[in-house]
Amino acid sequence: MARIYQVPSHARLWLTLAIIAASLPQLSDGPWWQAVLLVVVLGWRALLDRQRLAQPGRLVRLGLLLATVGATFYSFGRLHGPEAGSALITSLFALKYLELVGKRDAYVLIVLGYFVCATILLFHRGPLAALYVVGCLTLLTASLAGINYSDTHARRRQHLTVASAMLLQALPLAVVLFVLVPRVAPLWNMQLDSGQARTGMSDSMSPGQVSRLTESSELAFRVQFQGTPPPPDQRYWRGLTYAYFDGTTWRQARPPGWSDADTFYDGRGPAPPWYRGLRAADRGPAWEYRVIMEPSQQRWLYALAVPFTDLDGQGLARDLRLVADNPVSGSYGYQVRSVPAAAEGLDLNGPERRLMLDLPDTGNRRARDLAASWRQRYRDDRELVQAALRYFREQPFHYTLEPPRLSGDTVDGFLFNTRRGFCEHYASSFTFLMRAAGIPARVVAGYQGGEPNGDYLQIRQYDAHAWTEVWLNGRWVRVDPTGAVAPERIELGLRGLVEGRADAGGDAVAGALGRLPVLFRVQQWMDYVDFNWQKWVLGYRQEDQRALIERLLGAFTPTRVALALLGAVLLVTAVLAVLVLARRRDAPARPLEREFARLRRGLARRGLNVADCHSAAALEAAAARRWPGAAGRAGHWRRYFEYLAYRRDGDPPAGELRQLRRRRRALMAGLKA
């Protein structure tokens, strides 16, 4: 047991706090038994330090190890992977605290703690998480400083000061390495899954499904444009297209017999004809912007039509959807150039045309008859589309977030009975009518609008929207029947519509969202900080680094990057060395020594120079000779200084140091008088 005191008691507080702080993020997301394990370890360690329990033997430690490994396997079904691996290393970090005996054990524990801090950033990537990890690193470094401090009466705060200074000195070098070290792709593809369900668009759509998203104000994605963003009525963020209708639900589909190669291109291999057609029609106005998506656990991305990217990690589908190679399990950024006119490069051949006209053989007879009557009256497809929009505009349709439930022939039930619905009701029924009239059509789902926050737009779950695309004059044309019923939904966004109705007396739609809380501005500011963190730190990719280096150094070559990295490291090191050397070499390290030096410098500024070798009594005598009226105050300071200096080993507590400072200030005030 005596060997335990190789780790000073004044360092154990920071070590214990470091273990708790580094483990908390994993405990909040991990299985319940990890919290129990940490409490048991900390309690056992506290009793062990007070010599109430004995050091656990090898068999006990082996049993705890096997139990931890078994519990990890039981909870995650494996021992490898980011989730299981992070849980295991965090648990072993806590168990190692029971083995703490000498400095070697403390070194192993602290190094293991640094690895645990790294695992936090696998699952929590915002600026607050980064600050939290910095705090954990400070505690671990304070522990490292404490176990190497030989003075048994050292104050705990000293270790924290040393750790903070070390981290601040390392910060410039860390920035240089972050900016200049080549950013290469990892040797593995790590897919993280927090296990939490995410709200968002689904791969199918039925009545009432999209309106449920309005209950959530969670962020879906953020967009920053190069230049002025498009007006609100042009902000249609497409994510999915639904081509198959079974009478109730719309689903994604592709023509029978078509393969992925016919409908999807990810930049690998020769481009299919339809993609070359889009590229050939790439002309006219374009929007360039950056999207940062929140985790959705789905592969589909969101963009304006027609989206072009570098296809690095994404692909473009024939129906103009952007699709990621893997599910979006973390914040995901991508650059897009959208060219609306490029849609002219697509054609609609036989199998695809038949799919876009397909309807169930039976059902919704009244809607079919209505479409047939329009077709008899209007031979031009554009006139028929306008007639359908007039029908929605002139009939007593209502836009509401609380539509009545539909069953059976859902299209007929909405068009001729309830006439109260959300965007999916209007998009579904309008697409059905177009197909019944012989016009190819499909439902598009995504988001519409966006709320400005600084220089970017926020798109939230309540901005979810569905609309229709119809094939007119050789291209897909967006038609939004919701705009015919509630144009303010398109111009103002759903929140603007809700707030306007609430001010006017409101209806059922106002109760679904209500007003934002009083802390809205604070939330917006925090989101702005998080957006820029995602953009400049997490979104700092290889192409960004290349552009920066080319802007600073010219051509991007390995030699120039190596020279720039070496030069920057040497410059930072030199600046830090100068700052350290610029400090007084004889700068006192102990609190009482610093207090003595402050008084000596204060007297020197008033014309009394006292040598470093003088004692407190000699300093008092010199001050009394120069300023006889201050002799009493100089004596008060000297007697209290000697009392603190010779009373015991070690530094006096903070309260007594404050009393000594007050006496010094009183002495200096007497000199002014």
Summarize the structure.
The chain has 24 helices and 18 strands. By secondary structure, it is an alpha+beta fold.
Report what the structure shows.
With 673 residues, the protein is an alpha+beta fold. Among the domains are: 2-180; 355-439 and 480-513, no CATH class; 552-582; 591-672, no CATH class. The protein is 53% helix and 12% strand. The protein contains 24 helices and 18 strands. The strands form five sheets. The protein has a six-stranded antiparallel sheet with strand order 8-11-7-2-16-15. It has a four-stranded antiparallel sheet with strand order 3-14-17-18. α1 packs antiparallel against α4 and α4 packs antiparallel against α5 (103-123). The longest helix has 25 residues, at 156-180. The radius of gyration is 35 Å and the shape is elongated. It starts with 8 loop residues before the first helix and ends with a helix. The relative contact order is 0.08. The model is unreliable at 1-5, 194-198 and 503-515 (pLDDT under 50).
Beta-strand content: 5-15%
What is the residue-averaged pLDDT?
84
Strands, count: 18
Output the number of helix runs.
Answer: 24
- Report the span from N to C terminus: 60 Å
**How are the strands ordered across the major sheet?**
8-11-7-2-16-15
**Which secondary-structure class do the elements indicate?**
alpha+beta
Low-confidence stretches: 1-5, 194-198, 503-515
Radius of gyration: 35 Å
Coarse morphology: elongated
Helix content: 40-55%
State the major sheet: 6 strands, antiparallel
Oligomeric form: single chain
